[in-house]
Amino acid sequence: MLEKPAEPLAQRIEKDSMGERSLPASAYYGIQTLRATENFPISGLKPLPTYVDACVLIKKATAMANGELGCIPEELSQAIVQAADEILMGQLRDQFVVDVYQAGAGTSHHMNVNEVLANRALEILGDEKGNYSRISPNDHVNYGQSTNDVIPTAIRIGGLLALERSLFPALAAAISVLETKAQAFEQVVRSGRTHLQDAVPVRLGETFRAWGQIFSDHLLRIETAASDLKLLGIGGSAAGTGLNTHPRYRFRVAELLSELIDQPLQPAPHLMAAMQSMAPFVSVSGALRNLAQDCVKISHDLRLLDSGPKTGFKEIQLPPVQPGSSIMPGKYNPVMAEMTSMVCFQVMGYDSAIALCAQAGQLELNVMMPLIAYDLIHSIEILGNTIAALTQKCLRGIEANADRCHAYAEGSLALVTALNPHIGYLNAAAIAKESLETGKSLRELVLEKELLTPEQLNEVLDLAAMSQMPKDYR
């Protein structure tokens, strides 16, 4: 039996400055978005949800401001605000369809946002999608705005949202867990290692406390860099002069956005500068790269300290979270630490791309902003998600192998360092060399040569005392 042909999808006709096009009647995006999807079938990557949030929040604030200032009818302002609120609550997310790699400066995505808001606002008013004579994506949703001031503002808002939602909570949780582990492992002495060779003993607890301090320092650096994101170029319009905007517009939008995201935002002192320079994004990205580099170092340390179980250090036990091999039974790998390094390498790559994009602007506009937007916000979010996962699935469950730690610390040739003030550097070096050649311990050789008494030697080679941090260092 022959199947009935599928009913053709209902269509509507829209018109722009280039002509008419047909698109699905159910679509909330419009003709300019349709052209963009046809022009840029590049990666399949769509705008990040946080970036959509940022753009829609800007449109909500601008609609409120323009309604208050009499620039657009209050009825239209309220409909646009309601449409924005629905999107912020999760509706119509499938309507943001333009590829990350698109028209320079982000015009394609910007018009996608304008069209979705306009068409949903039309429905709210009881009208049909596409009736732009009543609510226009350009004349009403975008009143007093340009891609050139909206997109750099959206990158700022998106960055702040991502930091508050993802990275800052993740770092705070990691710092707390690392301090908890530092206290739990306070009395465990392990051999320090420099150049991957034996070094003087250290406390395992201080190893974890040092990592917590590293994260705390990075948190402060990123917060400092992010302060520049709070100066907005919105209101600059096409080139920074504020053409077609109300004199109070930029101040009111900044006030409204401050309330919407609970951040102290204000207009930039020079709107043209805020629209041209990508320096705030480069600064935040650089701080993220700096954090990523230390995350890689810490993840590698975790893998080394957990290496084994029979042929490596195995001074700590990372919690197993999944089988580690398709062929070797009973094998568990440090997968959370491995994942962390991969994500951090991606963040470093994004930082390089952002730096290249930032210097590629000309005159009144940087046309590489779509890539900066994606790479910066994605960096923040994947780094935050990674640190959160590492904390929950790895750091929180780490156990110390105290006996293994003590054995390595006790057998380390670097203990000879503590003998320097008592028997001299050359004598100590000779003792170390002989210990390595004969297999005799440092203690045996020092006593054999009667360089120190047993009581003196016990005091000098007291592992707990040698590894104790100064009491006033914290």
Any overview of this molecule?
With 474 residues, this protein is mainly alpha-helical. The protein has 3 domains: 26-143, Fumarase C, Chain B, domain 1 (Orthogonal Bundle); 163-230 and 275-324 and 331-402, Fumarase/aspartase (Central domain) (Fumarase C, Chain A, domain 2); 412-463, Fumarase/aspartase (C-terminal domain) (Ribonucleotide Reductase Protein R1, domain 1, Orthogonal Bundle). It is 57% helix and 7% strand. The chain contains 18 helices and 8 strands. The strands form 4 sheets. It has a two-stranded antiparallel sheet with strand order 1-2. Strands 3-4 form a two-stranded antiparallel sheet. Strand 1 (11-16) and strand 2 (19-24) form a beta hairpin. Helix 2 packs across helix 6 (147-184). The termini are far apart. 46% of the residues are buried. The model has no long low-confidence stretch (mean pLDDT 95).
Secondary structure layout plus pairing:
Elements (H helix, E strand, L loop, with lengths): L10 E6 L2 E6 L6 H9 L9 H20 L5 H15 L18 H18 L12 H5 L5 H38 L4 E6 L2 E7 H23 L4 E2 L16 H13 L4 E2 L3 H6 L2 H28 L9 E2 L17 H24 L10 H25 L5 E2 L1 H10 L8 H4 L1 H14 L3 H7 L5 H7 L2 H4 L8
Parallel strand pairs: 5-6
Antiparallel strand pairs: 1-2, 3-4, 7-8
Helix pairs in contact: 1-4, 2-3, 2-4, 2-6, 2-8, 3-4, 6-7, 6-12, 7-10, 10-11, 10-12, 11-12
CATH architecture of the largest domain: Up-down Bundle
**CATH third-level topology of the largest domain:** Fumarase C, Chain A, domain 2
The neighbouring-strand order within the major sheet is 1-2
CATH hierarchy class name of the largest domain: Mainly Alpha
Order of helices and strands: EEHHHHHHEEHEHEHHEHHEHHHHHH
Oligomeric form = single chain
How is the biggest beta sheet arranged?
A: 2 strands, antiparallel
Q: Report the sheet-strand fraction.
A: 5-15%
Number of helices: 18
The outline comes out as elongated
Specify the CATH homologous superfamily of the largest domain: Fumarase/aspartase (Central domain)
Helix content: 55-70%
Domains, number: 3
